[in-house]
Amino acid sequence: MRDEHEGQVSGESEVSRRRFLAGSAAAVAATATLSALPGVAGSASAVARPTGTRPNVLLIVTDDQPKDTDWATQRIRNWLVGNGVEFTNGHVTTPLCAPSRSSIFSGRYAHNHGVLSNGHSYNLDQNTTVQRYLKEAGYRNGFFGKYLNSWNVADTPPHFEDFALLGPVVYNDGQYNRNGTVQKIPGYSTHVIRDLALDFIQKGTSDTRPWFLVVTPKAPHGPNTPEPKYANTAVPAWNGRPSVFETDKSDKPAYVQDAKATLADGQRIRQDQFRTLLSVDDAVQSIHNKLQATGQLDNTLVIYIGDNGFAWADHGRTAKSVPYRPSIEVPFYLSWPAAGLGAGTTDNRLVANIDIAPTILNAVGIKPDTPQDGRSLLTPHRRWHLLTEWWKQGNGTAGPTTWASYISTREQYTEYYDLRADRQGALAGTGAVLFREYYDLVNDPYQLTNKLYQATQRDERKLGIPALAARLAADRESRGHL
């Protein structure tokens, strides 16, 4: 249902969307063509052949990668944007690693999958995950890199048959659970993960099953340790954005008023993130080359996303976990040439990490038997707003309190609550609203002016706050769809 607050989309955006949907519709014809092909060019012993209508699926999830990191990922963009689709309004529904990754796997909001923080990873019902559906459909599932925070590295990740879990998550000489054996694998972790992924893809030339591969490097998460060849690479200068220089924060919650990060802090984090992302750019290019060399590129659905964004001193903060755009907006790309999604288009729909699992299942032709909050990006569905949410952990006083936010392309309404999650994810507190924010994202994209600060009831009615609050309350209780 369309919100009354949302405006019309532009003609250019509608053209891009029609192209995308035309490509989606072409998937049926493309898979029929693939099934009719006798094989693809190359050596029969070295090149994979189409195995019917189901695509391979490659999911790449980076760690703490915000938008505006294009310079460090030029080859990724050449592939997945130049030969795919860029979602210009990509979001995460909880800007924290484990909750976001659980939403990616399950297609569900955190309030439904139960992983409310990095300490609640075992709350995820593994039977609701995309890897479970694909394994039962005969897919060969692989996972290499960071799994879920607080997951015991010795525990097998359910529904994956070939895996190397990195834990603790480090850049150099990491400890991995390699198919059930915990061992040290020397080397820069982005390279290790890359090489394991290449071997997995190569096996597709002899194993006729379609495959699902998840690649999750540590980069660009702190401490942002680059590989030696990029340790001193110069990155383009960046002189901040208006949210970095906000001086009057009296209209913001207390934790923002107390934040003191400077432009120099943001510049340092940005530089270090870029340097680690250069290695990810190399790794993804190697994966592209392997797919191409083995004849698997065209019928591989590739999805790339950051698990959350990160602030570069915006509003004085260098972190995530907050309801501001640098924290919740992420790069989000998709490519699938065999389905017509390889031409290089943009899509301005409001999309999120919860849409990834439904998209994969739709592409494979599986209807889930558990509710999902997301929608397939291969359909014409367009949402007009999105829920984002985050929970305060424990009894500490630092940082934000629990919050939830209504977001559209035009406006954002946020409520902070008297709620805390314990070690098991159980909530305590009155639930009372402690603070509220409203931003006009069209005229105030950097979220400098909270229009609810000192607002009268009449002001709130003019902004449509009662309706937004009611919608937000309903979203927080939502239970997905089948």
From TrEMBL:
Segments passing through the bilayer: 20-41
InterPro entries to which the protein is assigned, alphabetical: Alkaline_phosphatase_core_sf, Sulfatase_N, TAT_signal
Cited CDD domains: G6S
The keyword Isomerase is annotated on this UniProt entry: no
Domain Sulfatase N-terminal: 55-366
Pfam families (UniProt xref): Sulfatase (PF00884)
Domain of life assignment: Bacteria
Swiss-Prot/TrEMBL keywords: Membrane, Transmembrane, Transmembrane helix
Name under which the protein is recorded: Sulfatase
Species name: Actinomadura alba
Source lineage: Bacteria, Bacillati, Actinomycetota, Actinomycetes, Streptosporangiales
